[in-house]
Amino acid sequence: MARVVVSVMPKPEILDPQGKAVHGALPRLGFTGVSDVRQGKRFELEVAEVTDAVLAEVEKMAETLLSNPVIENFTVTVEDQQS
Amino acid sequence: MARVVVSVMPKPEILDPQGKAVHGALPRLGFTGVSDVRQGKRFELEVAEVTDAVLAEVEKMAETLLSNPVIENFTVTVEDQQS
After folding, report:
1. How many angstroms separate the CA of residue B46 from the nearest CA in chain A?
2. Helix, strand, or coil (residue B79)
3. C-alpha to C-alpha distance for B54 and A16, rounded to whole angstroms
4. What is the rounded average pLDDT of the residues A24-30?
5. Given an 8 Å threshold on Cβ–Cβ distance, is A43 in contact with B41?
6. Which domain of life, per UniProt (chains A, B) (predicted)?
7. Are A82 and A1 spatial neighbours (Cβ–Cβ below 8 Å)?
8. Is the dihedral of CA B8, B11, B12, B17 positive or negative?
9. In sequence order, which residues have a C-beta less than 8 Å from that of residue B81 and are 6 or more positions away?
10. How far is it, in rounded angstroms, from Cα A47 to Cα A56?
11. Burial of A73 (C-beta count, 10 Å sphere; 0-12/13-18/19+)
12. Quick one: pLDDT at residue B48?
């Protein structure tokens, strides 16, 4: 079994109200030093093995189901390979 | 500037309806070979520089604001260090 991670983040030019809310809450909680926060989604997909075909399929999933390509960017990474 | 990433995922023993919904949608879209999906959150925090003190503070933010430690685990990673 292996785990493929799809990270979906709002594009830089897109407003991110969730991230803004978190950023606004930090000073109220006594945290300083963070100049920006953006919030996105993380999907962990369990697959039998990581091959180029599987990664291509995950890429297509990310494009069609997991992200909205108009407002979001995504990256696909292989996290760990357990046997 | 550097980017610190906080990944928040539901604990393994916690039901994850969002992940289940994604997992259920995959076969309908013609995707096979994914045995499980879990969905969590990803926060990208911009900080001036990455020091042990900053990382400790981010760890505390993750614990108190970004995650619910009863049902979620989080990990803190340093993504990239731009000068």
Report:
1. 5
2. strand
3. 23
4. 96
5. no
6. Bacteria
7. yes
8. negative
9. B2, B50
10. 13
11. middle
12. 94
Confidence of residue A1 (pLDDT cuts 50, 70, 90): confident
Task: Over range B56-72, report the average pLDDT.
Answer: 97
CATH number of the CATH domain containing B42:
3.30.1280.10
A40: nearest CA in chain B? B42
| Predicted local distance difference test score (pLDDT) of residue B79 | 87
Q: Which residue has the higher pLDDT, B59 or B81?
A: B59
> Domain span at residue A54?
2-81
pLDDT bracket for residue B80 (50, 70, 90): confident
Q: Identify residue B65 by its one-letter amino acid code.
A: L
- Residues of chain A contacting residue B19, judged by C-beta atoms under 8 Å apart: 43-44
> Would the pLDDT of A83 be above 70?
no
Taking a C-beta distance cutoff of 8 angstroms, is the pair B11, B54 a contact? no
Question: Read out DSSP for chain A?
Answer: -EEEEEEEEE-TTS--HHHHHHHHHHHHTT---EEEEEEEEEEEEEES---HHHHHHHHHHIIIII--TTTEEEEEEEEEE--
What's the total number of domains in chain B? 1
Q: Report yes or no for ipTM above 0.95.
A: no
